Amino acid sequence: MADSKVKQELLDATTTSLKSNCSEISTLIRQALEAKKFAYCPYSKFRVGAALLTHDGTVFTGEKLYTLALRESNLILP
Fold this sequence. Notes:
Layout: H1 2-20, H2 22-36, E1 49-53, E2 59-67, E3 72-76
Antiparallel strand pairs: 1-2, 2-3
Cofactor: Zn(2+)
Protein name: CMP/dCMP-type deaminase domain-containing protein
Family: Belongs to the cytidine and deoxycytidylate deaminase family.
């Protein structure tokens, strides 16, 4: 019973935070979509972009890059 109460409180806090930060979320989505344009994925053709907002307001963006030597994708954050 206590677990469900904690989960509900967390969900309520998250929902409230998301509603109050809607413009920040929209900005992060736009930045991730912009980063996605720079993804290099010649094999899968599946572009990925990411934007991370830190506690101090700094935003880091990155995109999916393939390396030929490893044949894996890496998320590169500047």
